[in-house]
Design goal:
Layout: H1 11-14, H2 35-40, H3 42-55, H4 72-81, E1 86-88, H5 97-101, H6 110-133, E2 134-140, E3 146-150, H7 156-181, H8 212-215, H9 223-241, H10 254-267, H11 271-283, H12 292-296, E4 310-315, H13 321-324, H14 330-334, E5 349-351, H15 353-358, H16 386-389, H17 410-413, E6 417-422, H18 423-435, H19 439-453, H20 465-477, H21 484-490, H22 524-529
Antiparallel strand pairs: 1-5, 2-3, 4-6
Length: 551
């Protein structure tokens, strides 16, 4: 079933969907498959579970007409562009200008419809898996959360692990969306445009149990209720997934679930719990930080999830639609060395020069970007094609390599992986979370991580505090991986692009604290279909800041 606005399937209409609704059918079986058949057939339940990681690379969730509609990786990229860390040259091929220039981000624009459509369709894939393998009891627990039992016929650690993956994926998507849609006051808006207090409102919760009538009168959950809901999902993910031996890293294991618990508690500033869960992920011992050789590898650097560091990944196969497009995929947009992609057409992917300058020259991660002429590191960066690298702008990224180092053939270069979660994030969450209640210990944790794994010459500075030191290390370590926007928003950090050399004139912003554009608007179509959202939308940030003229 389609909603009023083209192909959008939001929360209000989600309950009208079947497996063959607005989404492509995620399991290779007819619509007559019963729940009993799904449970009794391990292949069927496996196919259903794998529809969730497949949705990471869903092509044309909204429309094939837009070059940013290629899945979860695109949303990661949008969030990074909203910070001061990742720049693109202003160019006709830069489809991400809305997020960089703070334009067309209101409830009537396509840039707003795509994230909403993506998240709720992704949530539906998780709901389908949960519904096939578990059932919710009629009564709820003391916190009002759903109580689940495994359906008869579900047995063995593998099927239970697939159910755990359903809960983990749903937690991932809701946590992402909650952080982006949650309204937090900023220098432009302390209320919404109707003058209503909407602080800490997130988005409506839709489960496999929600009726269509309920979905059409479904208010935005506040932070506390969303936290309880996601915590409940993660509780069941841990219960059912503790012995799961996954076939590959596109499905979450227990370390990934612990990592989600760390992210969740960091979001709500429950810092002791965040540090605890991050340490639990580290202590599992399955994952070790990337080595210099792995990080800078010109054929497998940040495109191969075989490395120990990667906890959870997304993979693209040769037959995937995003690969077959040739240019609407992760490699095309994220690898400057792929000579056929969007980045090759000149909206080069760059680190903000001010952030680059903060990195010690002794830190091997600095070799991930092109040093400007005359810099001590100029020409020392490992590259695939020196002649091509010479054409790239200063500060251009070499972090995400085309697969097998192939710069010409998209059928090879685009077949690879990108990270959803790495163990390094857990070290940095532990350090930052600890800094909020024990600065001395946090300083030791951060120093040990950086000196051991990244920069032997690292010395802890204290001018801006330990929390800021941890934030800066996150900006470097997780650059381009779609995570740092949450820290800008949670910590009320200003986006200052004026100290960098490589932001375009229309993107040269300096905010006072978190920017208003990190509170994503809900599409108008969803409000039309769900009256409980009327008057409760986030205010439109478009055009509410003036770029700072360059000198």
């Amino acid at each position: 079933m389609k909603s009023i606005h083209n192909k959008i399937c939001g929360a209000a209409l989600l309950l009208s969907l079947t497996l063959t609704g607005c989404m492509e059918e995620p399991i290779p079986m007819g619509s007559t498959a019963t729940e009993d058949q799904l449970v009794s057939s391990s292949k069927a339940t496996e196919a259903l579970a794998f529809s969730m990681p497949a949705f990471f690379n869903n092509f044309a969730t909204y429309s094939s007409d837009f070059a940013y509609d290629w899945g979860y990786g695109s949303l990661m990229h949008m969030r990074d562009i909203e910070t001061a860390d990742l720049a693109r040259i202003s160019h006709g091929y830069n489809w991400y200008s809305s997020w960089g220039e703070n334009t067309y981000l209101g409830p009537l624009y396509v840039a707003t419809y795509l994230p909403w459509a993506y998240y709720y369709q992704a949530i539906q894939t998780a709901n389908n898996t949960i519904s096939a393998l578990a059932e919710a009891k009629s009564e709820r627990d003391a916190d009002g959360n759903l109580v689940y039992t495994i359906k008869p016929g579900v047995s063995g650690d593998y099927q239970k692990g697939l159910l755990a993956a359903g809960f983990a994926f749903r937690a991932l998507f809701y946590l992402d969306a909650a952080q982006w849609y949650e309204f937090l006051p900023n220098e432009i808006f302390t209320t919404n445009e109707e003058g209503k207090n909407i602080t800490e409102l997130t988005l409506p919760i839709v489960t496999e149990m929600t009726t269509e009538a309920e979905a059409r009168d479904n208010p935005r959950a506040d932070r506390e209720d969303m936290y309880k809901f996601i915590s409940n999902d993660l509780k069941y993910a841990i219960e059912f997934g503790k012995n799961f031996q996954r076939p590959n890293k596109t499905l979450p294991d227990i370390v990934a679930i612990y990592g989600l618990c760390a992210r969740l508690n960091l979001w709500v500033k429950n810092y002791e719990e965040a540090a605890k869960w991050a340490r639990m992920a580290i202590n599992e011992g399955k994952n070790k930080p990337l080595t210099q050789e792995e990080w800078l590898n010109t054929s497998k650097g940040f495109n191969d999830d075989a490395v120990s560091s990667w906890i959870w990944s997304s993979r693209m196969g040769k037959e995937d639609n995003v690969v077959q497009t040739g240019i609407l995929n992760w490699t095309s947009w994220m690898s400057n060395e792929a000579q056929f992609g969007y980045s090759a057409a000149a909206p080069f992917l760059m680190i903000g020069s001010a952030l680059y300058d903060r990195i010690n020259d002794t830190d091997f991660r600095k070799l991930s970007w092109k040093a400007p002429k005359g810099h001590p590191l100029a020409g020392k960066e490992p590259v695939i094609d020196e002649e091509w690298a010479a054409t790239l702008a200063d500060y251009s990224s070499f972090k995400f390599r085309p697969s097998e180092g192939n710069t010409q053939e998209y059928t090879i270069a685009c077949v690879g992986a990108y990270p959803i979660m790495r163990i390094e994030e857990m070290y940095l969450i532990e350090a930052e979370a600890t800094a909020h209640f024990d600065e001395g210990k946090a300083g030791s944790l951060l120093t040990e991580f950086v000196k051991t794994y990244r920069d032997p010459a690292f010395e802890l500075g204290t001018a801006d505090g330990i929390v800021d030191e941890c934030f800066q290390q996150k900006r470097i370590e997780l650059w381009g991986e779609g995570l740092i926007a949450w820290d800008y928003k949670r910590l009320d950090v200003s986006v200052d692009r004026t100290t960098s050399l490589n932001w375009g004139d229309l993107e040269n912003y300096k905010t006072n604290g978190r920017p208003a554009w990190l509170n994503l608007c809900i599409p108008q179509t969803e409000i039309n279909n769900n009256p409980a959202l009327k008057g409760k939308n986030n205010p439109d940030p478009s055009g509410r800041y003036n770029p700072v003229p360059k000198k």
